[in-house]
Amino acid sequence: MRAVWCGFALGVIALQQQAALPGRVAWCGLIALMVGAAIGGTWLLQRGARGRVWPFAGWAAVGIAAACAGFGYAVWRAEIRLAETLPQAWQTRDVDVMGYIARMPAFGEGSARFLFAVESWPGRERAASALHPPRLLQLNWIARDAPVPPLVPGARWRLTVRLKPAHGEGNFDLRDAEAALLARGVRATGYVSDAAHAQRLPRDAQGIGIAIEQRRAAVRARIGAVLADAPHRGIVVALATGAQDDVSDADWRLMRNTGTSHLVAISGLHLAFVAGLVGWLAGAIWRRARWRGVEAPLVVPAQKVALAGALCAGAAYAALAGFNVPVQRALWMLAVAALALLGSREVSRSHVLAWALGLVLLHDPWAVTAPGFWLSFCAVGAILYAASGAPRVRREDDAEPTPDEIDPMRDKDDAASEARRGRLASYVDRQRWRRAARRFAARLHDGARVQWAVTLALAPLTAYWFLQIPLIGPLANAFAIPWVSMLVTPTVLAGAVLPAPLDAFALHAAHALLDRLAMALGALEGLPWALLRLPQPSGWALACAAVGVAWMLAPRGWPLRWLAPFTWLPLLAPSPGGPPDGAFRLTALDIGQGTSVLVETARHTLLFDAGPGPESTHAGERLVVPYLQTHGVTRLDMLMISHDDSDHSGGAQAVLDALPVRQFVAGILPAHPLWASARTRGAQVVQCAAGQRWQWDGVTFEVLWPDAGPLGGKPNAHCCVLRVTTAGTPLAAPAPGNAVAALLAADIEARTERTLMARGIDNLRAQILVVPHHGSRTSSTEPFLDSVWPLVAIFQVGFLNRFHHPYPGVYARYAARHIALARSDWDGAARIEAAPGALTVERFRDTRRRYWMDDPKAAPAGRAPRANDNGSDNDNPTRTDKTETDTD
Q1: What is the spatial distance between Cα 737 and Cα 723, in angstroms, rounded to a whole number?
Q2: Which helix (H) or strand (E) holds 562?
Q3: Confidence (pTM)
Q4: Using alpha carbons only, how large is the chain's radius of gyration in Å?
Q5: Sign of the four-CA dihedral 177, 179, 180, 184
Q6: Domain span at 361
Q7: Does 677 share its domain with 760?
């Protein structure tokens, strides 16, 4: 079965890398390959049983057949889920829906986010479309005129909502939020648009899932009432219910930097501990139970009762935890092992893990897109692999001595007296203490080996997903794991099941234990060598590191094990350098409605704006900072904030907190708190003004607006405008040797455009234009576009944003000029490589496309299609030397 389930998993993983679902021809080929491989594998195994061929070939064929089955199963599940589509007529307008809250809501400051299961759409709107409307919505309820009402799982509501199709920002090397929505079954997102007319319906929804969610919500509410504003309340909630949205940023930072963040999630370790404890108690009670004079173990063996109790406790705890992937893996492993033992059958540990792998993917084929899947299964696989090379051999002197061995010459007539003296002598017997010390040392050695194997195996994945390797992790986990598993978790669970007021004592005790743990971890975090930050490794670097992990964990005697650490060198190598001297790379991030552009030269980096902050979508913290860290940016030479609109400056504080900034340049008022924050962090602060000019690595930077002096008017009137130019001859078209320029226009409007044009057209010439004011109707005038004469235009706009950017007339203005366009709402992030005489464009949704993404070239109704994707312009011979291309 290992070959079957591993092949099945490979097929599921292969589908999640596809840009499109297979068509009819591909389906026929898949079925033919599966049937042929199954028949060939069966024949080879039958022949192999008689020793004529290697059984390995037969199992390989069976694995191929299973991979085809896994691929087809994942396609079938994907087609069913993608069939649920939000009709275009329902988008961005008020729609009445009726349903119930499907999961425990997540509460923020003045808001709540929850999953809403739709029971019925309005009849007139349901009949307007033949499509299957989404059955599960992700909604936000924002407190405006009134606070958010109590939202509990199972509560039925009639709501007026405004919806969009499920859409996530697309940025290079960051997690795909759209895949996470698809995995949860969410095909549309939105918010409650008319809270005043929301109606709570009388009868709540029923079902096992609803009952579980109601229990989780009740436990969370009880913890919130007891611990209130306690600093580690979020960790207690996470350990009790699996909900991690209450964990504070300080706690997350502490645990990430010490390699203990896995303890916040209800993992397989916690489930195994709870199941083992309950199983032991059930077995102990059953051994002492009697029924009408008959001992209970004579009816049902105590071992089977203990297994049943452990399995029930594990299932209950997994339900309380929300059935996340690590918990699913642990529960399935427990179930497979328990069923095998109850059936008196032997099953190897690798078979148990293979069954868990297959069952997890049968339940959720999209689990492979989450870090928890890889971290959980790789950790267990590393433990099993390391344990396979270290067999335990019991020594004869480890056995407990019998009374006769203590004193074989004792008098049989005085057995009771001698037995008492023998027991007394055993307490002071040196041999007994030596044996106990050896057993304790052996357990410590086994524990250290397991910790070493897990740390070593997960280090490459930790570097890939979290861009760091906590060097202090093994030491921190050495005491954090037993502290949380044996003390904190049982205390939290006691607080979840005990009645008041006993629950308060347990919860306060759990918080006190967490406070002591945080103090110890904080001391370790302060060590200068505690954390190693790395850029996101490439695929081949991960492959080399995986070979090194298997090499280092191999059994003793494996040849040349001292060479294994050298396979990690690609993982530890610095990120690839920037563009060559005289060139620059411009990356316009997809942050929704807002602006954030990273400009890189050979040895310098500049971030122009930082996107929205906590007042809106937290894009600065969620997207901008992670992208900088993933991209290997360890410091910013300049952070330029164009003006004080929240979609440009809101994320600046998150950037200042995360990275050292050498120079902070902004077009914001002197009283703005960002000035003081930048000074506190050691940055040189400068107000941007026209005429400022500098060079980095042969690339020229020039500020064109605003004028020097006090800032006046609304923020858009004095926002910074930056022009970046490569080395070379300053001509308009990127012919060999000619300079290429980019104009970052922020939110300037028509009046500022006219002023810049009056100062000289040559200063505005740019082949790359980050479109002013997101393409609003107040900017991008015809004379301005003729003056800039761009070849590539980038619109940084939110998907179906409420401002209706870009304005259709303005977008058509760009399309009429045959400009290559990139829109963050359709294309995701755009990356442009600019060198003298060369210009290339890469769009995220073109090069990293997956089957769940909408077609970026299919424009919504009422909007112009993307113009001139290949960058050619045969009607204007002066532009035929343009080298803009789409890399795929």
Answers
A1: 19
A2: none
A3: 0.83
A4: 32
A5: positive
A6: 266-389
A7: yes
